[in-house]
Every structure is written in structure tokens, then in C-alpha cells.
Amino acid sequence: MATNLTDESREFRAPQTMTPAELGDNLALLVWESFSDFLSKQDVETPLPDSFATAEAPEGPTEHTVEEALIFFMWAHTRGVQQAFLGRAPDDLIRDGLDALHRAVFEDMVSHGTPSAQLPIFEQRVGARYSEYHQAAAESDSRLGEVVCRHLTGDPDNCMEMAVAMTERAVAVAHPLRDFLEEVELVS
């Protein structure tokens, strides 16, 4: 099959505009991708330390670890959006985009077996972690890594390597997302 596409026309082009709903849907996909890579330990840019394996049950990560990892990746993507759009887009559009992200993730959770009755409790935990993570990130990147590690492993005394890895993951998620979104206008 012949094609008229040149290499230049096949190159990825970022959208110039995005609605809050489009932003939320795209972010949800990115959250799930980051989350899946984390659980499968395929993110080679910021590998988890071997000590993380001992924090997991032999049959895999615990439900608590899985939920905490999902919350962390939701927060990291939220952070990237806030950094990209704060002062450039109306607060209500940013909030609508982030609400769309959370709705999409929660809908995905329910469609994959999470009882909808558990969502309000999970949402409360999300709010509490976001508050903690925002405060820790305001103090320092290393403090953020420590707080994330404490929630993932439940072992604040054994978090040095893991805290560094989680700090690197937060940066690896938020900074490229911020850079990408700085070229996008958020529109209603």
C-alpha cells in the first residue's frame, strides 16, 4: 500500500487546545500507564530498589500498596497539570480537568471490580494523601519521597532508597507532563 505521508507529517503533534474533559481522559490513561509500569517494575528510568520487594507479599503487592501507588500517580499527574496551567488558565477549567481525571479513574476502578460503595472511602484517602504530598513537596523533593515511601511500605525507618526512587518518579511524571501541557491551551 502506497502512502503519501512524509516523515514530517507522521511526526506526533501536540494538540493546540484541550477541553477539561479531554484533559481528564488523557490524564487517566497516563495515570494507568504509569501505575501499570510501576507495578510491573518496567519503568527503567527510575527502577525500584531491591528492598521494595521485601515490602511486598510473596504473591505480589498488597492491596494497600496498590492503592497507595495509584494515589501517588494520580497526585503526580495532578501536580504536573497544576504546574503547567497555573496562572495560564482559569482555575475553574483546571479544576474541571482534574475532576474529569478523577472521575475517569474512579469509573475505571468500578468497571474493573472495585465496589462503588468503596469509592467514597478511597476518595477520602486520596484527599488526605494529596494534602500530605503537596505539603511535603513544598518542603523538598526528598521529603516528598519519604512521605510516599512511608505510605507505600508502612515502614518509615527503611525508606532511604525507596524515597529517592519515588522522588525520581514524581519528577519523571510531573515535569514532562508540565512541559507538554505548557504548549496546550485549556479551553471550555
In short:
By secondary structure, the protein is mainly alpha-helical. Helices cover 69% and strands 2% of the residues. The protein has helices at residues 7-10, 20-40, 51-54, 63-85, 91-111, 119-139, 141-153, 160-181, and strands at residues 17-18, 185-186.
3D architecture notes:
The protein is mostly helical and 188 residues long. The chain has one domain. The chain is 69% helix and 2% strand. The chain is built from eight helices and two strands. The chain has a two-stranded parallel sheet with strand order 1-2. α4 (63-85) crosses α6. The protein is globular, with a radius of gyration of 18 Å. The N and C termini lie far apart (40 Å). The relative contact order is 0.19.
What secondary-structure arrangement, pairings included, does this model have?
Blueprint: H1 7-10, E1 17-18, H2 20-40, H3 51-54, H4 63-85, H5 91-111, H6 119-139, H7 141-153, H8 160-181, E2 185-186
Parallel strand pairs: 1-2
Helix pairs in contact: 2-4, 2-5, 4-5, 4-6, 4-7, 4-8, 6-7, 7-8
- Biggest sheet statistics: 2 strands, parallel
Instruction: Count every beta strand, where a strand is a DSSP E run of 2 or more residues.
Output: 2
Spatial strand order of the main sheet = 1-2
Class of secondary structure makeup? mainly alpha
- Count of helical regions: 8
| Overall domain count | 1
Note poorly predicted spans.
53-58
Helix content: 55-70%
Taken in chain order, the helices and strands follow as HEHHHHHHHE
Query: Which descriptor suits the 3D outline?
Result: globular
| Terminal CA distance | 40 Å
Mean pLDDT rating: 84
Work out the radius of gyration.
18 Å
Strand percentage: under 5%
